[in-house]
Design brief:
Layout: E1 7-15, E2 21-26, E3 34-38, E4 43-50, E5 57-63, H1 70-84, E6 93-97, E7 103-104, H2 122-141, E8 144-154, E9 160-161, H3 164-167, H4 172-175, E10 185-193, E11 199-205, H5 223-236, H6 251-259, E12 266-268, E13 287-291, E14 298-299, E15 304-307, E16 328-331, H7 338-359, E17 362-363, E18 368-376, E19 381-383, E20 389-391, H8 399-403, H9 423-433, H10 437-443, E21 465-473, E22 476-480, E23 484-485, H11 487-504, E24 514-518, E25 527-528, H12 531-536, H13 539-542, H14 550-566, E26 606-608, E27 617-618, E28 623-629, E29 644-650, E30 653-659, E31 665-671, E32 678-685, E33 693-703, E34 712-717, E35 721-723
Parallel strand pairs: 5-6, 11-13, 22-24, 23-25, 27-35
Antiparallel strand pairs: 1-4, 1-8, 2-3, 2-7, 3-31, 4-5, 8-10, 8-17, 9-14, 10-11, 12-34, 15-16, 18-21, 19-20, 21-22, 26-28, 28-32, 29-30, 29-33, 31-32, 33-34, 33-35
Length: 724
């Protein structure tokens, strides 16, 4: 494969922002954390690589979502089969989540992941499935000859180990081989059009949790990885943000702004907001994705964890304060401003990616290949050293799971490291499902708090059948894992697979082979800690579902895939398929209908207009805001559109300058507790690169009078204001 590009490459991207009001967020399992607006939009970003139009290929999709979902994967593959036949299937499609904790939930099929979202949320699910499909379609339609370059480098200030005491349980001689208790390397792929020589995209893998935004946040956000992607894509197309005309601030400008009043609510079309998007998705845009890796114990809250009452560091072994886990909270680099922390950790990943992107020289060449198998993880026989045979267990969660982490403390009365359960919680557990003696023994030293693997009412609480997958792109191997490997667990897996490939590959693989873990891919099964970390039963170990030998099972089964790939053999047998539980999902969240504005008011009318500061004009760093009468955004997701726009006056024409996919613009929605009328507040934090001139804020929305009536759409703009 030559430098002029004999691979076929394609990239795609599509808006997957789900319902921005009243839907529980996926990640922290906090009942009170329901969506109430958008900080910036969520996207599915895909790349496809193929040897030729009929040759081997695979598709990799990165989601601004908490994790992949088995049901999402099943339905995406069904749609792809209708479009393309057997071209894309479970073997060669990988769907991976960034692990943001600020996206709408309700899209996973197992009970334990949908309790706080009140069951299945069709709108969340459909937004994700459609976006994955459309991003793959876009990548498929844009396939062209091209080259792929790989680069790696260290990023040391975007994560810390949040369970350092558990890491210390790993053997000292093993720990001595690594400079830190987290992995600091980023691996980046650069995709270059073979004809034009232009870059069309970049995908990178780096481990840090999507928890810069806390469990109190209610704005939809891609968290630090989504922010990094937004910054990277904007950097690449940097001219798109700079308005072509700079209008100097003057007395004349201020007077003109004072004459332009709010428009009032006006009807518009369903697609009107798409015309006001700053970044229109025509399939030609550069795609920059920041993918997740072995993130299990890696926190972006790099200042460390402190007690909220005393300001002192938390207890080292349990991450609690005087025995209370709720008081121990991690601090991001922008503490106490979580938006700033998100920006800083996002910028650090973005800047490292730019560095790797601009210096990438190693071109990938060689075979495209893949292997995939489904495994029943509740009963895998694992052969350890010395011919000792052990087994994995049905899924279960320990008390350390209920304690939560320093990124998001859980329930009062639990601590990380707990291996005992008090009588009250035992009675609660036994009321739900008393674990069998086999399960109790199998999971030791974990105490079984929730016996999810043996709970099947009203349907399965946890997955039993999991996919594992290997993708090969020349000397790059991507391991698609359906969960969160801790740092050391990920190291062991990568090293084992590399060794297997080298020893079985007849010279095809060597020490220069890159092995990358793609975390939270194809389905979700929580954590994978090492056997030694499992002994301490901190959060990650207590959430290692299938018992103390989970990691050993992964290494054993991945080694089979690696050996088959190295020797050019197929996987036999393919294994049991996971269930499609879509027909039995509980849906307890009601659909909205019947929103109306106050008497004499239209949706889109301004409730509270812009209030310029004393000098009459806004400066960089100021916040301009306006509130509009508005129904819940759940009536229409305005996919590839926007609920909020900052317009700039250029001559006699208003031009969109920022929208709800910008880091500087905030769309907040809520209901007035006394009147029960809904309103949307648009806040613009003036960035340093904002041009001086006349601006206004615009809102788009949708409503319906009854459940069965068609949607109507509206828009409204605030009074104008000046920026100096």
């Amino acid at each position: 494969i030559s430098a002029n590009g004999e691979y076929l490459i394609g990239v795609g991207s599509y808006d997957m922002t789900g319902p921005a009001a009243g839907v529980n967020m996926m990640g922290y399992a906090n009942l009170e954390q329901n969506t109430a607006g958008i900080h910036f939009r969520l996207r599915a970003r895909a790349f496809i690589v193929a040897e030729s139009s009929n040759g081997a290929r695979f598709a990799f999709v990165n989601l601004d979502a908490g994790m992949a979902s088995q049901l999402v994967t099943i339905k995406v593959l069904e749609r792809l089969k209708k479009r393309y036949g057997k071209v894309y299937n479970e073997d060669n499609v990988a769907i991976s989540g960034t692990h943001t904790h600020a996206g709408p939930g309700g899209y996973l099929q197992y009970v334990v992941y949908s309790v706080t979202s009140l069951g299945f949320v069709q709108q969340s699910f459909d937004a994700i499935v459609t976006a994955i499909e459309r991003s793959i379609v876009q990548a498929h339609d844009s396939l062209r000859p091209g080259s792929i370059f790989i680069n790696t480098g260290d990023l040391v200030n975007a994560g810390i180990n949040r369970s350092p005491s558990a890491y210390l349980f790993n053997p000292p001689e093993e720990r001595a081989r690594y400079p830190r208790d987290i992995d600091t390397f980023m691996t980046l792929l650069k995709f270059v059009d073979g004809k034009s020589g232009e870059s069309i995209g970049a995908f990178s893998w780096f481990a840090t949790h999507g928890t810069s935004m806390s469990k109190d946040n209610k704005l939809i956000s891609g968290d630090n990885k989504g922010a990094a992607a937004r910054f990277f894509e904007d950097w690449f197309t940097s001219t798109s943000k700079k308005t072509s005309t700079t209008i100097n601030h003057s007395t004349k400008t201020s007077k003109k702004a004072q004459t332009i009043k709010a428009t009032g609510g006006q009807p518009c079309s369903k697609t009107a907001s798409q015309g006001f998007k700053v970044r229109k998705n025509d399939g030609s845009r550069f795609v920059g994705a920041f993918c997740q890796s072995n993130v299990g114990d890696v926190s972006p809250n790099v200042l460390g964890a402190f007690c909220t009452d005393s300001g002192l560091p938390c207890d080292f072994n349990h991450s609690s304060c005087h025995g209370n886990d709720l008081l121990c909270v991690g601090r991001g680099p922008g503490y106490p401003n979580e938006i700033l922390s998100t920006k800083i950790i996002g910028e650090r990943q973005f800047q490292k990616a730019v560095n790797l992107f601009t210096t990438a020289k190693e071109e990938l060449s060689g075979k495209i290949d893949y292997r995939h198998v489904y495994l029943n993880f509740t009963d895998i026989e694992v052969e350890l050293e010395g011919n000792k045979v052990v087994k994995t267990c049905p899924a279960a969660l320990g008390p350390g799971f209920a304690a939560g982490t320093t990124d998001g403390p859980g329930a009062f009365g639990f601590q990380q490291g707990d291996t005992k359960i008090n009588d009250f919680w035992k009675r609660v557990r036994d009321f739900l499902k008393k674990p069998t003696q086999y399960q109790v023994d199998c999971q030791k030293p974990k105490a079984v708090l929730l016996d999810t693997g043996e709970m099947f009412e009203p349907y399965a609480w946890a997955p039993a059948i999991l996919p594992i997958q290997m993708l090969r792109l020349g000397k790059l191997i991507i391991l698609s894992v359906p969960g969160e490997f801790t740092t050391m667990a990920g190291r062991r897996l990568r090293e084992a697979i590399k060794e297997t490939l080298i020893s079985n590959g007849d010279g095809e693989f060597d020490e220069e082979t890159h092995v990358v873990i793609a975390g939270l891919t194809n389905t979700y099964s929580q954590y994978i800690a090492t056997f030694e970390e499992y002994k301490q039963q901190r959060y990650e170990a207590a959430s290692t579902l299938y018992g103390p030998h989970t990691l050993s099972a992964y290494i054993q089964e991945f080694n089979k895939l690696a050996k088959a790939m190295a020797q050019g053999e197929n996987i036999v047998p393919e294994g049991p398929s996971p269930p499609d539980l879509s027909s039995v999902q509980l849906k307890l969240l009601l659909d909205p209908f019947g929103d109306s504005p106050p008497p004499g008011v239209s949706f889109g009318d301004v409730k509270q207009d812009i209030h310029p500061p004393k000098g009459g004009s806004f400066n960089k760093g100021d916040r301009a805001s306006a509130t509009f009468w508005s129904p819940t955004p759940r009536y229409d997701l305005l996919t590839e559109g926007t609920y909020a726009v900052v317009e700039m006056l250029q001559g006699e024409r208003w031009v969109p300058a920022y929208d709800d996919d910008d880091f500087s613009l905030f769309f907040n929605w809520g209901v007035d507790n006394s009147t029960f009328y809904g309103s949307a507040t648009i806040e613009w934090e003036l960035p340093e690169d904002a041009s001086p001139g006349v601006y206004r804020l615009r809102h788009f929305g949708s409503t319906k009078k009854t459940k069965d009536s068609p949607n109507t759409y509206f828009t409204g703009a605030s009074s104008a204001f000046t920026v100096s």
